[in-house]
Structures are given as structure tokens and as C-alpha cells.
Amino acid sequence: YAEAHNNLGLVQRNLGQLPEAIASHERAIALKPPYPEALNNLATALRESGRLEDALAACERALAAKPDFAQALNNRGATLHQMGRHAEALAAIDRAIALAPELATAHFNRGVVLGDLGRHEDSLPAYERALQLNPRHPTAWNNLGFAMQALHREEEALRCFGQALALEPDNVEARVNQGNALHELRRLPEAIEAFEQALARAPGHVGAWTNKGIALADAARWDEAQAAFDRVCQLHPGQRYALGSRFNAAIRAADWTHFEAWRAELESAVLAGQAAATPFVFLAASDSAHAQLQCARLYAQDQARSFPPLWTGARYGHDKLRVAYLSADFHDHATAHLMAEVFEKHDRSRFEVSAWSFGPVTNDAMQQRMRAAFAQFHEVQLQSDAETARRLHAQEIDIVVDLKGYTQGSRSEILAHRPAPVQVNYLGYPGTMGSPLVDYILADAHTIPPGHEAFYDEKVIRLPGSYQPNCRQREVAHAIPSREALGLPAQGFVFCCFNHGYKITPAVFAVWMRLLRQVEGSVLWLLQDSPLVAERLRQAAQAQGVAPERIVFAPRAPLPEHLARHHLADLFLDTAPVNAHTTASDALWAGLPLLTCSGDSFVSRVAGSLLHAAGVPELVTTSLADYEAAALRLATHPGELAELNQRLLTGRASSALFDSEATTRHLESAFLQMLADA
User: Which of 9, 303, 423, 668 shows the smallest number of beta carbons within 10 Å?
Assistant: First the structure.
């Protein structure tokens, strides 16, 4: 009996016996041609076997026999979707829904296609309708949660994942997604627990290991994060971003056991075309501007979503040029401290500036200052990238300035919707974004020297002086503690570096240790990241013949107190290839000479840019050998160092580095040039 063979095929498919199911459905069709229902079931079994062309042919045969067969149209849509033919898939599924509005799987499949197209807002009603028709569909609940999360609606997403898990407690994908939602809500212990529950059910689940590693990293549990990413590399060599994540976890923990091997492996993978690291992580792995470009391009391509551009060539002709600044850092953050006076000093007669904040609502003093600096301060944390882009476009913004780039908390997909004629990469990320969505990068003659334009996909506009703005309103505490109070020797030379610990490389640290061995009574004063990092750096010092107690750690302090304690140091030693940024301008404002080593990449040339603008270019070296020799000379020639200190202090008022008025005018001139060329 044909029906018996068809039913047997359904049972076999449910048992995962796909070859047997295919044979049973083919036998049923042979006994009762054309048998469209069996053809549709055959198409499903073929699709699940990966035989997509054969599955599509079976759907076509079913529809030839029964043109208004909604289930076959739905199946055709699912097959076309798997083939990457999304527009045709959507058309077939919509036709199925028109014929059978109560067909839950068609609404579900519509949501899947729209989600894969990045149209998460449009996918919501499709999943919601599928769940109205079939509330006990764990995958629909999971997918609805994923769409909610993509729209930054994490609380609703979490509820959806909970529904999926209530129906199917062993659903590993829903468990991983639950962990991701908890992570976004900064509920890190619960997120890690969710990933561990997923791994208890599926020990080889690469996504669960990856996301557990990311959550552990955000919790600063770096050794555990490194172990998680190492497991990913073992399970799936070539997994996207795994090599970079492992390297990053290691350097954050000052674990240099595999530093050069992992660094070289990572750089080679990127140059071979593998998306092995996010651009921000890769900054610390390679000083090659070419490799940085390659990494950014790979990341941009991997993250790319294609959306119809909102701006299609209209010329607005406003009386005032409309500039929108996008950031998550309009609060007590380095970016806000650098940009505050620029925001305040914009020429309101010619420019209409607005802030678009997708960061935390802190209501701290800096955030209140930010709100006062802008005529319009938009909170878009809970809005999707698409909705934010639509609002930018509706306000006829001329220039969108992305102050985040590829740093933590960025939302560069807003730019993918092309909300404005001109889109700019500035300040937050020290490198190219490698994307055609970004038109310009703002730099200077040192960060991007002539001839380096080929390493940036954006058009380069160089600001006079330094690209980095600086605020003159830096409060310095009046009370300066004694050296002894901060664990420093009363006498002796104090080398310092207040950069983040991950920027310290074995090669730079070796230079520092040689300096300590040569300068009697000297100490190295570092910013404390964690007790673990402090202990490892002291162990590394001892291994290189330096007493561990000569490494002194400064706890984090409020900015006024931090600026005041710079007066207790003699020379700031920069890191390479990731230079000091805001920490460099802090030191120079305090009159503390800073010695840097400029390399090939943007990030390795930032401190050099600041030193040129501050009028002390002699503190810029271009090799570690020259850097070491200059540091030793300065440490043993106090008169030369004192002269540099005096030049910095007396020249501060007239320094291009701290002339926020001039910087703002230069920035405005650049904006006018961009719009004229658009």
C-alpha cells in the first residue's frame, strides 16, 4: 500500500533513518503516482539529508500535481532558504501562508528567513503567530528570543529562552542563548552557569565553550577564559576568533608562556585570510598596518549585513551642518574626558550637534556634562540598530561620527543602514574599520604618515597637530601624597607606566628589566590590573634578575588623585605596539616626560602624535634599541629630564595638544570638507 510506505517513511525520518525514509517515500510515489503528499515528504527527507537540488525538484513535482499545496510551498521555501535564495524562499512561504493562514510551520519558516536576512524586527510577528498556533514549539520560542536579543530586548529574550527550556530542558541551543542574554544583562555568574549546563549536555559544543570563554573574560577570570578558548581551538581548529580570544585571555593574565608562538600563529592566520581575531584584539598581536587592514576587512565581511541604504543621495542644504556623534561612552570614560570640550565648543551658529548614546545611564558628573553639551541627547540603548538608523535618517543628519569603531560596546551595524551621506571613524578605535560603510578616518601626519593611505579603506583626513582632542578642564588634586605613602622609595629613580597591563609585552618588559638593573635604586611603578597580573609580573622580574619588590603597583584612583600622583614619577615608559592614549595625555598634562616607540600601525603611533603636538618630538623613538638607550640616558642625566619636565609644564597653555578650541575648529573644517566631497 502506497500510504503504508509513506507513513513508514515518516517514522523512519523521525528516527533519523533518512536513507530508509527516502526509499520508502519513493516506493509510495511509484505505487501511487504522482502522490503529491509523498513527494512533499520525500522533499523534506532529501532536504534534511543535504540533497537540496533533489529536494527542490521533489517540491516542484508536488506543486505540479497540486498547485495550491500549501505544505509543499512551505517546504519549497525552506529548501530555497537553505540554498541561500532568500527572496524566492520568502515568496514561496508567503504564498503558503496566503493559502493556509493556520500553517504554523510556514510562519516559523518566515521568521527564520527574515532573521537570516537581518530583518529581526520583521521576524517577530512571524514567530509570534507561529507560537499562537503552536505554543509548544521550543525552537520557535528560542528563535523569537534570539530575535529579541538582536534587537537589544534582553529581558524579553530571556523569557523566551525560559519558555523554550521549560518545554525542552535539554535544548542546548536555547541554553546557550539563555547564557548570552544573561551575559548581555551583566548577570555573569548566571551566564557562566547556563553555559556550563549546556556543556554538561553537550561537552563538545563549540558555541557553549566560546561563549563561556567570553563571559569568563568579561568577569576578568582570565585563566579560565584562556582554558575555554584553548578547548575551542582543540575542538574546532579554525573556529572564528578563537585564536585571538585565546591570545587576548593570555595577555590579560600576563601569561606569556606561549606569547610569541600564539602571536605568530594568529598573525599568520589573519594574513592567510582567516577571521582569527576581532580587530581590537589584533591590535596587540601585530604592528603591521597591512595585517591590521586585513583583520579589519575579514571582520567587516564576516559581520556584514546587506540593508537597503536609507540615504540615497539627497542633498539636505540645511542652514547648519548636522553632526551626530554615536557612542556608548557619554559618561565617566576616557572618550568623554577627551571629547568634552569639543562638544561644548562646537560653533552653534554653523553646526547642529547631537549625541546618540547606547551606553549606560550613569548620571555621573561627566554624563551630566555630556547632556548639557548637546542640544539633543538621544538614549537609544533599547532601540535596534535599524530603528536608530531610521531616526538618524529622519533627522536628516549630514555626518555620523562613530566614536566606538571596533571597541567594546560598539554598534557599527547602525552604519550598515547608511543613515547619512557621510560616515566617519574617529577616536575610539585606532585603526581602519576595513568597511565600505565608513567613508573617512580622522588622523594626523604621525598616526597615518604619508604613504600609509593604502592601509586604510577610509579616506584619510589629517588634522593639524594631533588627531586626539584634549580637555583643559582636568582637575588635579592639590594634595600630593609622599612617595613612601604610595610604596615608592623616598630616593631613587621612578620609571612608571600607567597603561593597561595587557599592553605590556615580553620584549618591552625585558627592556624595563635591563633598565632597572642598570639604574641603581630605581623602581618600576605600574597600574595594578589584578593581584594575579601583579604576581606574574613580579615573577617575571625575578626571573630576569630584578628583585620583585622593585615592581610597585598603583591602585586605581579617581582621576584628580591619579593626575596628582604623576608628580612622584620621573619618566613614563610607553608600551608597544599598543601605545598609551589617554594615559599619555594625562602624563603630559602633569608635566611627566613620556618616552615612546612608534611602529607601523596607527595604534603604535598614537603617543608619538601626542608628543609631537606637545612640542617634545625627541621623546619619540622608532626601535626598542633606541627606546632603551634614550630611557637610560634620561634616567642618568637628571638635567635633561628636568628641562623636558619644565618645557611640558610651561608650554602646556600654548601647546597644540591641549588647545581644544583649535582642535574643534580643525574638526569642523574637516566635516565641511567631507560634506563638500560627498
Answer: 303
